[in-house]
Design a protein that fits this description.
Order of helices and strands of chain A: EHEHEHEEHEHEHEHEHEHEEEH
Strand order of the largest sheet of chain A: 7-6-8-9-10-12-13
Radius of gyration of chain D: 21 Å
Helix content of chain D: over 70%
Number of strands of chain D: 4
Shape of chain A: elongated
Number of strands of chain A: 13
Oligomer: heterotetramer
Bound molecules: adenosine-5'-triphosphate, magnesium ion
Strand order of the largest sheet of chain D: 1-4
Structural class of chain D: mainly alpha
Number of helices of chain D: 14
Chain lengths: 306, 360, 506, 340
């Protein structure tokens, strides 16, 4: 019996994540107990308690918020149920880390960092001189991805004085708010070179606002998003968006791999990040310190299922 | 005689809640003007064929709430509330996208096409919302359920329904007639503004140019007495919830056309509170009774102005809440009866002093 | 007589938007006297009381109470000082039990807890004093208006006070109850209380009052010793003009061949308190309803109008069987109904006088044929004038009118529908003598035009004076039917009391 | 002469009072749903004492808040700020202790001060400025949420020995498997319910609350201290919200500015399902107790099912909600018919 406690369904990315994990577990032939917390921490706590009562064998867990899990996770540990964390790594006061089996999820600061590097190197590649005025649409303030991506991107900005963040506002990870905020930004800020949206939804919303302002998205304003969902690929192929830094929701395979391993008595590294890329129009832009380059979106659009 | 009449009129104006709502709106705008005069710049945007500027944005983006608030206003006038409107926005959008795309398992690149003709898409979305509105109405008018609880049911379940419709997916479309709903223009104005104006007009005509408005108010003030006076209170309440649902549907189409996709999770989130707020700022009484169309529109504009203000000046978005709280508190307190009476007494006193001086 | 002045008010002034409700009114009350306060509807009687008890803040004036100047800012404060009040509209909490309504705010305590047993016991006792035998642990709202009124009187009387104010306490009481109330008042008077008594029943005034103060249009007309003024004189002073014509009303003439307008055949509520009522009223006839409190008059009227559904029996209008399941049906049959409970079933408080008057007429015309503003104003103004409704303008909220004027607005609403059958349940309650006569005259006039009127009233002489026939009800059944005019009050009373000497009519 | 039959004041008679019908209806529906759950998921452990006590443990904070809310609703008001105030309490404790190093119990005292003050302020706004309760408390909610966000946008863990001790403290029920226990929150919940019931039933203050809900104008004319009572009720509700916040902080041991979003609707609907009328004047603490349980049994059922997609879970919640209210109506109207 495998139990899976998911945050809720706040975006497409999450849906893809849920679907993938659930499908993998079911395909592996195990009984799945799934609970959707509907964005409420208390619901997740309840669900975890419930899993213990039901006597499940494994718990797969995505924490909605970083803190506040000590009690219930202690109970999980007491009940000796292996805990597999995905997507988000909560903080606890346990001192050591043997309360969970392993963690698998995106490296948010690195995603932001790659986005920043892409912007820097892209402008170098087209021979742009002088300041780069950046508008940032950040995610829901206080959420893990927002904090991580902001931090990673800021690292690049700090290292490159010509990159300037001229406008910074939260768009709460939604298309509608991304659009409304961009609409205001276009009026408040005279010159915008780059839009860095901390997820693709906000970028896709912002594209419409840019069009309405009479500018050409992807040309007048370079747009880079994050997540790399299919809709973003489509926008990149259509030339309305420039790049997106991947954050994969496909975690089911890893979950199954871990559980199978545990059954066989294997142990795992505590923290593992998936391999993620940056996709853009033409590819070939350097995105990290190791010299990895971005991939061309058009080549990969068909493998995207979410 | 003439002078007396004029005096009476100014008195009436300053006493009306609408007046204070307008004052509040102007004050916020004044602050904007002082900080950055170019907030007010409006120019013609040839590529989209409409006017372009922050003020236009306020009008444009307030449409969703204004339209919903029109329905909410009628519901509140019957001493009810409709918490389900936000979820209905999601349902309407989900259904529209589903009908246009009809491709749950595949993700073909969205293009300028639609499986279903636009009129059917619109009819189905609005029809579904109308149906859900009548479900609310049924619970409230027939079962005599308390409106907050009755509409809570669809508030919770509505989002679920929206997700079921689209299989929990967010679908994008490039179908240009559909895009036109939110991105098109007419008479140099964005379509949502036009649609909102039309809705306001229809609501005005159907409530103030027929006896419907009077009946609603009457039922809201005293249902028992209205029944004895031969009004079909049940049917009136039912109708009002249906209207509210229908308008939420329109709002949902605008919302989804804006983002050219559906968003079952976030569409219409919190709209019910904003709409109620707009109605109350506009002078509506939660206990039922008189409603004021112009005031409600004003209330909605105030709310949107605050948000635009925050976005435009790059204020931390967390402050929206505190901002909203403060501005609303000020408006509501100014509108409150004891304060108005105080102001009135004072002005009367001043006038009588002046009168005395004149006599000497 | 060496009664000392316990309360005096000097130069009381207050104005509401559009009206000067009190204009330099003086009033004194001695301990051990019953002082009647009289005046037309809207004269300012209730307002004077409300200024005294701190409901309204007066604009000017001084109040001396028990030797010192006071300015109460809330009813609570006034109560603490020893002023106990029954307000005109019944002001009780429908969700609480009868006992609680009597004792709320001053419940007997035991070990710092409310002593419910003691409270219920005392409440029962108190209600017995008024000869009401009910379960005081039931919520108030299941009882009729009359019981509620007695509850509020019981509450006021039980408070240890120096001054007792009764604002129209007798408007929905019948003779027996009034007698009992008066006995209680006499007792309190002996104990040295000062009582202010507001009423529109002049008979009652002469029975109990020691002195009389008359207000008109917010101004003081004068204070008189009860022995030193005649009834006619009093009326003249109240209304400001001679009105003896009103006592010469003629009963409507019913044509010999007049058809039956409305017939009811053994109607009743299944499982309810009223059953098996048969009655008919002819064209142009005025049928009076007499009976004790709770005898079922109101319920009968409500059945005829479809407010409550008659489970059995049939109703015919002009020979044709009709179905009335909702007031809409009745209105469609040109039946009109002026309900007893004005606050609950009558006025729509937040709407204006104009809207209240036009409401039913508009309802009949339907949604899509709205009356133009001009029509509305015409209609409203016509009836404001016809019924002498005192209001600064027709846009005033009905809820802000004086009680009597609210009643007139409802009457206007129904008269405006031009009905065939007019059912009036206590229409003259709380209405001043002038207006009362006016309403009676109107009823008779309507009968003259062929309208049939069903007239429910607790005032027997009023019924006897106006009705062609009187239907007497007892315990939810029809007890007798007697012709009007020739029957005396005494005869009717004996039928009402009939065999059913229940409870304890002392 | 026949003496009127005195109703005997036996316990049975008192319990059969028709005014409790709504409460009984709630209890009946709760038992019904619980039985259904037991039949469906009995084998998964739905019937264990632990599951039952979990209903209390997991919803103690809702219940504590519902005590104050019931009182507010009985006066005919409403308070939308409860979730935000509880969340603010969590922030105060977390930020105060973890970041500023203040003793958490001092933070709690401070929160109580702020919560009650905010409650009183909203009450005063409602009572003296005649602002509709819905709006006054909505601004209160925006305000409290805003302050939360200004304090910190990240969730902060609470780590304090005594606080942890309190959170961990529990009374184990002996001899049952799986392990069942009652913790501090549950006791606080039960105590608050009892205090609330005592206040409503046995004090003048409580009766005034009912009177105000029945008819505020009448209550004032009857000489009751309407203004004071109403303002105090909102103050008391502020206290309840803070205590709910404390319970929640004990529950998750952290503070987060977005926690307890929408909790106000849970609290209100718990009270209403328990038979409290939003129009005021009617409501009982024990009704609210069962309202809370009833409301919490739905998510429990859905989790036990364990296969429902998130959206079907939402629809399911809606349908169950409708079901209760339907059954409640039927029970009430059936007994009303019998009475006639
Ligand atoms: N709250 C109020 N707001 C505005 N006007 C009011 C208010 N209360 C009373 N008035 C006005 O004051 C005047 C006096 O009213 P009041 O109730 O004192 O009359 P009354 O003598 O008691 O009449 P009735 O016999 O009908 O009860 C009326 O014209 C009424 O319209
Ligand atoms: N004195 C009383 N004692 C007990 N019950 C009463 C009393 N008065 C009225 N009731 C209740 O009221 C019901 C009938 O009231 P209804 O209003 O139809 O009578 P009514 O003749 O119109 O009296 P009213 O003059 O009060 O309007 C009775 O069945 C009874 O339950
Ligand atoms: Mg009066
Ligand atoms: Mg009657």
């Amino acid at each position: 019996k495998v139990a899976f406690s998911q945050i809720g369904q706040e975006s497409d990315w999450r849906t893809a994540n849920t679907d993938d994990v659930k499908k993998a577990i079911v395909d592996a032939g195990w009984e799945l107990i799934y609970d959707d917390a509907q964005q409420k921490q208390e619901n997740q706590v309840k669900a975890l308690r419930n899993f213990i009562t039901q006597g499940v064998d494994y718990i797969v867990f995505t924490a909605i918020v970083t803190t506040g899990w000590d009690d219930v996770l202690a109970e999980v540990k007491e009940a000796e149920i292996p805990l597999i964390l995905i997507d988000r790594l909560p903080e606890t006061s346990f001192g050591n880390d043997d309360w969970y089996t392993c963690y698998f999820g995106g490296d948010f600061p690195f995603e932001g960092y790659k986005a920043g590097m892409w912007v820097k190197n892209y402008f170098e590649s087209i021979g742009h001189k002088g300041d780069i005025n950046i508008v940032r649409l950040s995610g829901t303030t206080g959420s893990d991805p927002q904090i991580g991506r902001t931090k990673g991107f800021d690292e690049v900005v700090a290292a490159n004085p010509n990159m300037k963040i001229v406008y910074d506002q939260t768009g709460n990870f939604t298309r509608a708010e991304g659009q409304a905020v961009m609409e205001a930004a276009l009026k408040a800020v005279p010159k915008i070179d780059v839009l860095w949206a901390e997820n693709d939804d906000m970028a896709l919303g912002a594209i419409e606002a840019i069009k309405a302002a009479g500018k050409v998205p992807g040309k007048d304003i370079i747009i880079i998003g994050c997540d790399a969902v299919k809709a973003a690929f489509e926008a990149i192929v259509a030339g309305e968006m420039n790049a997106t830094s991947e954050c994969t929701p496909l975690m089911g395979a890893r979950v199954v791999e871990v559980i199978k391993g545990l059954e066989a008595g294997q142990t795992f590294d505590k923290v593992v990040h998936p391999v993620e890329y940056v996709y853009d129009m033409n590819g070939g832009i350097v995105i990290d310190d190791d010299g990895n380059v971005s991939l061309k979106a058009a080549d990969h659009i068909n493998e995207r299922l979410y | 005689m003439m002078r007396k009449r004029m005096k009476l009129d100014t008195e009436r104006i300053t006493k009306s809640k609408l007046f204070w709502a307008i004052v509040a709106e102007l004050l916020i705008l004044l602050v904007c003007l002082i900080i950055r005069p170019d907030f007010f710049s409006i120019s013609y945007q040839p590529s989209s064929g409409m006017l372009y500027g922050s003020l236009i944005d306020i009008l444009n983006r307030s449409s969703e709430i204004t339209i919903i608030a029109m329905g909410m206003m009628l519901v509140i006038a019957t001493a009810g509330t409709d918490l389900s409107v936000g979820s209905l926005v999601a349902v309407s959008g989900a259904l529209a996208l589903r009908l246009m795309r009809w491709d749950l398992d595949l993700y073909p690149t969205p293009g300028d096409w639609s499986i279903t003709p636009l009129y059917l898409v619109i009819a189905a979305s609005l029809g579904a919302c109308l149906l859900m509105g009548s479900f609310n109405g049924l619970l409230v008018s027939r079962w005599n359920m308390q409106p907050i609880i009755a509409t809570l049911i669809l508030m919770v379940a509505g989002r679920g329904i929206a997700q079921v419709i689209t299989g929990g997916k967010q679908m994008t479309t490039m179908f240009s007639p559909f895009k036109f709903i939110a991105h098109g223009s007419f008479l140099y104005l964005p379509m949502p503004v036009i649609i909102t104006a039309a809705v306001i007009l229809v609501i005005y005509l159907s409530t103030r140019r027929t006896a419907f408005g009077l009946f609603i108010e009457s039922v809201g003030v005293n249902r028992s007495a209205s029944r004895v006076s031969g009004l079909n209170a049940r049917r009136i309440i039912m109708t009002v919830y249906m209207i509210s649902g229908f308008l939420a549907g329109i709002s949902g189409l605008i919302y989804s056309s804006r983002i050219i996709s559906n968003d079952s999770n976030n569409a219409g989130q919190g709209y019910e509170m904003d709409a109620i707020l707009a109605v109350v700022i506009g002078g509506g009484n939660m206990a039922g009774g008189k409603f004021n169309i112009a005031g409600t529109v004003m209330g909605s504009l105030i709310i949107r102005t605050i948000i635009t203000f925050v976005y435009y000046f790059g204020v931390a978005a967390e402050a929206i809440m505190v901002f909203k709280a403060m501005i609303i508190a000020v408006v509501i307190i100014l509108q409150s009866e004891p304060i108005r009476r105080m102001l009135e007494k004072r002005s009367r006193m001043r006038r009588s002093i002046q009168g005395g001086a004149l006599h000497e | 007589m060496t009664e000392s002045v316990i309360l005096s008010m000097q130069g009381m002034e207050i104005s509401f938007p559009g009206v000067k409700a009190l204009d330099r009114v003086d009033f004194t009350l001695r301990s051990g006297e019953v002082h009647a306060l009289l005046g037309e509807n809207g004269a300012g009687k209730s307002t004077l009381i409300k200024c005294l008890t701190g409901v309204h803040r007066m604009d000017a004036g001084r109040i001396m109470f028990d030797g010192s100047e006071i300015s109460p800012s809330s009813p609570q404060e006034a109560m603490k000082m020893g002023i106990s009040t029954v307000y005109q509209e019944i002001n009780l909490c429908p969700n609480l039990t009868v006992a609680e309504n009597i004792f709320i705010g001053r419940q007997p305590m035991k070990r710092s807890q409310i002593d419910w047993k003691e409270m219920n016991r005392r409440a029962s006792e108190l209600m017995e004093r008024f000869n009401i035998h009910i379960d005081v642990t039931r919520p108030l709202d299941i009882f009729s208006t009359a019981v509620q009124q007695i509850v509020s009187i019981a509450r006021a009387v039980d408070i240890q006070a120096k001054v007792l104010i009764l604002d129209e306490p007798t408007s929905s009481l019948d003779e027996n109850e009034v007698d009992r109330l008066f006995r209680v008042m006499e007792g309190l008077k002996k104990e040295g209380l000062g009582i202010i008594f507001i009423t529109h029943f002049l008979d009652q005034v002469f029975r109990i009052a020691d002195r009389i103060t008359v207000l008109r249009n917010g101004q003081l007309v004068g204070t008189f010793e009860a022995g030193g003024i005649t009834k006619l004189d009093l009326v003249t002073r109240m209304i400001g003009k001679d009105m003896d014509a009103i006592y010469n009303l003629k009963r409507p003439d019913v044509a010999k061949d007049a058809g039956k307008m409305l017939e009811a055949d053994r109607i009743g509520i299944t499982g309810g308190t009223v059953g098996d009522i048969s009655l008919h009223v002819k064209e142009g006839e005025l049928l009076g309803f007499a009976g004790l409190l709770g005898s079922g008059r109101t319920e009968t009227a409500q059945m005829l109008f479809g407010v409550t559904r008659a489970g059995k029996g049939s109703i015919r209008k002009q020979g044709k069987t009709i179905r009335v399941r909702h007031p809409i049906d009745a209105i469609g049959q040109k039946i009109a109904f002026c309900p007893e409970d004005r606050k609950r079933d009558g006025i729509i408080g937040d709407l204006s006088v104009r809207e209240n008057i036009m409401l039913v007429t508009q309802g009949r015309r339907g949604l899509f044929r709205p009356m133009s503003r001009q029509e509305q104003v015409q209609l409203a103004e016509k009836y404001v004038k016809l019924l002498g409704i005192m209001t600064p303008d027709i846009e005033k909220k009905v809820g802000e009118l004086s009680g009597g004027n609210q009643q007139k607005v409802i009457l206007a609403r129904w008269m405006a529908t031009d009905p065939d059958v007019l059912i009036l349940d206590e229409p003259t309650r709380g209405i001043d003598v002038g207006a009362k006569a006016e309403i009676q005259r109107l009823m008779i006039e309507l009968c003259g035009k062929g309208v049939s009127v069903l007239f429910i009233s607790s005032e027997l002489d009023e019924i006897i004076r106006c009705a062609n026939r009187i239907l007497i009800m007892r315990d939810g059944e029809k007890a007798a039917e007697v012709p009007g005019g020739s029957t005396t009050q005494h005869e009717i009373l004996s039928i009402i009391a009939g065999e059913g000497v229940q409870g304890g009519v002392a | 002469m026949s003496k009127p039959a005195r109703t005997r004041n036996t316990l049975l008679n008192r319990l059969m009072n028709p005014k409790f019908i709504m409460v009984y209806a709630t209890i009946v529906v709760f038992l019904l749903i619980y039985t259904i759950g037991a039949l469906l998921y009995g084998d998964k452990g739905f019937t264990t004492l632990r599951t039952f006590l979990n209903l209390f443990i997991d919803n103690a904070y809702v219940g504590i808040s519902a005590v104050g809310m019931t009182m507010v609703i009985i006066t005919g008001g409403i308070d939308l700020s409860v979730g935000a105030v509880a969340s603010l309490t969590g922030m105060f404790i977390a930020y105060g202790n973890t970041i500023l190093g203040i003793d958490p119990f001092i933070c709690i005292a401070f929160s109580i001060l702020i919560g009650v003050a905010l409650g009183l302020a909203m009450g005063a706004m409602i009572q003296y400025l005649k602002v509709p309760a819905f709006i006054a408390t909505l601004t209160g909610m925006f305000f409290a949420r805003g302050v939360c966000a200004l304090i910190s946008r990240e969730s902060i863990a609470i780590n304090h020995a005594a606080f942890n001790e309190l959170a961990k403290w529990r009374i184990k029920i002996p001899d049952v498997k799986p392990l069942a226990y009652v913790n501090f929150n549950v006791l606080l919940f039960i105590v608050m319910i009892l205090i609330g019931a005592y206040m409503l039933q046995a004090t003048r203050f409580g009766r005034n609350v009912y009177a105000i809900g029945g008819n505020e104008q009448s209550a004032s004319l009857m000489g009751l201290p309407v203004n004071r009572t109403k303002v105090l009720v909102y103050g008391f509700n502020g206290l309840c919200s803070v205590l709910a916040g404390v319970a929640y902080a004990l529950y998750v041991k952290s503070g987060w500015n977005l926690s307890l979003q929408g909790a106000e609707l849970d609290v209100i609907s718990s009270a209403v399902i328990g038979g409290t009328l939003l129009t005021g004047g009617v409501g009982y603490m024990f009704g609210t107790l069962f309202g809370v349980l009833l409301k919490s049994v739905i998510p429990a059922l859905i989790t036990f099912n364990g296969t429902l997609l998130s959206w079907w879970a939402k629809i399911g919640t809606g349908v169950l909600l409708l079901l209760f209210i339907g059954i409640q109506r039927i029970v009430v109207s059936a007994s009303a018919r019998k009475k006639l």
